[in-house]
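name: query_chain
kind: protein
chains: 1
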Amino acid sequence: MNAGHRMDQVGRIERQLKHRFADAIHRLSVLRQRSSAKERDGAGDNTPLSEGVEASWAAAEHDSDRSESARLMANAVELQSALKRIETGVYGRCLDCGGPIAPQRLRALPEASRCVTCETRKEAAPAGSST
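structure:
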């Protein structure tokens, strides 16, 4: 019964996760289409000042789009992983210690894969650490 969670709660969470996953995929698609259109279209009135300003603006926008794409991809992976945990019956259990994830945490962050203690430990670990 998914780590003690009532089935109706798990069903509601599953629907929410599926909706958020579809939204993340849609937003990724929009970003990619926008980037492709910009690359195809080019732009500018070819004055030296406008070329420099446009190049700076385009670079900043490209960096912003890449950051947003990376964030959306990471979120989609987390959402998909949570859906897989529901499917396999282990949703609500910490991936690190195996203990239950607090219901309040799952309500706030349904894709949570770790209890607060293990997540805090993971965030405190130095980069590149396998903890």
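note: The radius of gyration is 20 Å.
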